[in-house]
Amino acid sequence: MSVSTEPRELGLSILGLGTQYPPYSLESRAIDVLSKRYYPESPAMQKVLAINRYTGIDKRSSIGRPDHWVVNQPDPPTIAQLHDIFMSDGLPLAISASKEALAEAHIDDAASQITHMVSTTCTDSANPGYDHYVAKALGLSPSVEKVLLHGVGCSGGLAALRTAANLCLGHSMRGLPARILVVALEISTTMVRSELESIHVHQETRIGVCLFSDCASAVVLSNDVPFSATEPIPPAVYSLLDWRHRTIPDSEADLGFDTHPQGWKVVLSPRVPNLTASVLEPTYEDLMCGKTLPGGYECPKDFDWAMHPGGATILTGAEKVLGLQPEHMRASYDTYINHGNSSSATIFSVLNRLRGKEMDGVCPGGRGPRELVVGCAFGPGITVEMCLLRRNLEGGKGGRKGMETPPETEVSSEDGEGEGGSDVGEQEEKRGSEEEAFIAKALESVELD
User: Fold this and answer.
1) Measured distance CA(264)–CA(209) in Å, rounded
2) Active site residue: 154, 168, 376, 387, which one?
3) Per-residue pLDDT tens for 120-178?
4) 399 lies in a domain?
5) What are the helix (H) ranges across 114-155?
6) Where is each Chalcone/stilbene synthase C-terminal domain found (predicted)?
7) Fewest Cβ atoms closer than 10 Å to its Cβ: which of 29, 291, 355, 437?
8) Which range has the worst mean pLDDT, 30-39, 242-251, 288-297, 432-441?
9) Is pLDDT of 443 > 70?
10) Residue 25 and residue 349: Cα distance in Å, rounded?
11) Residue 419: pLDDT above 50?
């Protein structure tokens, strides 16, 4: 796609972001608990449990604990039961994240101001989709134009943003305002029994069970057409300048999420880190081709990076190929260490975290945060989504520079009793890591292949 070299030309602004993690955190031993409870020792199980201790993840955010009823039946839960949990425990997270994004975007009347809704998930499938119920809960207009993306996995957040951007540009061409709510919701931890069952029955090394977590996130994307002269558009949190999408040929068997009576089965081959690393540089070069950027932006290390933390090898592979340091992807590492991989919902969480005061204090080489940010995520296909963003570092209305750290997941013991739940109102702000400890954690990331 040919574009002008003017970085502001598209007039696309992210006006607000919202992230909502569920109230529980699972340490690595949570998988050991369920493995020992339901399955005998075997070479494959022992190998997966060993890998689980060295993923680089401290805690994975979850809607429940190992004593949750849905993972403590004689057999793994059915896809119908997983759907019920997705709706009962996941839907409130999506509604909360959406409200947070709408509030920051100064959307006071969502029914009249939200023109479109683009949503994504890979951990549920139903008709109508979950987006219907989010729109209903938010009181959106019956005429709001909705799109629900499926089959895009971990790249779903940026795929939804790309879809919303094209809808915005269509409205701009027609001289119409567009305010698009983009929502991602994933509930992955309930599939632990299904994954452990496959490890036991087929003696496969399946590491997806070690990585995935639960989260909802949302952004509000706007074009530059105001509703009226008396309603100016609020300052952007990020401006969306451009994007690229490409598919790695003949890689569909390497990364996927296959439908199964017991939910979905993660497909993750050992080739994934090398495949994703191989496409990063050409996609970046294509994204930057023909652009006149401000001084000081000549190579990948001159940008800040919001990389989807699909696994430790995804991040360390990006460092090697692009010449980055962990601090370039500081928000990605922080999210990965403290929450795990929440599939499509993760990238908006990373972008939200990147603007926190703690993140601004751990930039590469002691420099300050960069105005230009590259966002990137990989999904089934294998596909790569990459975009160029401009972060608003000037503050402005809403206090967007160096924002306070958003509330994190409540830390709950995995050994507690009860079913767990999604009472997001009871969440506590998690203690942030010291800067030195964070850098040490980032540098200790372990290769899994």
Assistant:
1) 12
2) 154
3) 999 999 999 999 999 999 999 999 999 999 999 999 999 999 999 999 999 999 999 99
4) yes
5) 130-138
6) 247-390
7) 437
8) 432-441
9) no
10) 16
11) no
Whether residue 98 has pLDDT greater than 70 = yes
Would you give the distance in Å from CA 185 to the centre of its chain? 9
Residue 2 lies in a domain: no
Give the torsion through C-alpha atoms of 71, 20, 355, 362, to 10 deg: -30
Give the total number of structural domains in the chain.
Answer: 1
Question: pLDDT class for 331, splitting at 50, 70, 90?
Answer: very high
User: Is the CB of residue 368 less than 8 Å from the CB of residue 302?
Assistant: no
Cis upstream peptide for 382 (omega within 30°)? yes
List the domain range (segments joined by +) for residue 156. Answer: 12-425+434-443
User: Which pLDDT band holds residue 395 (cuts at 50, 70, 90)?
Assistant: low
User: Is residue 247 assigned to a domain?
Assistant: yes
Contact status, residue 214 vs residue 93, Cβ threshold 8 Å: yes
CA distance to 103, 169, 218, 407, per residue, from 99 (Å): 6, 24, 9, 14
Question: Rounded CA gap, 286 and 130, in Å?
Answer: 35
Residue 154 among the catalytic residues: yes
Q: Which amino acid is at 3?
A: V
The answer as to whether 336 is a domain residue is yes
CA distance 61 to 83: 18
Q: What would the mean pLDDT of 389-407 be, rounded to a whole number?
A: 61
- Residue whose pair of structure tokens reads 């040919």 in the numeric block: 2
In one-letter notation, the amino acid at residue 413 is S
> What's the predicted TM-score (pTM) here?
0.87
Give the domain CATH number at 312.
Answer: 3.40.47.10
What is the distance in angstroms between the CA of the first residue and the CA of the last residue of the chain? 35
Angle, in degrees to the nearest 10, between helices 346-354 and 330-339? 120
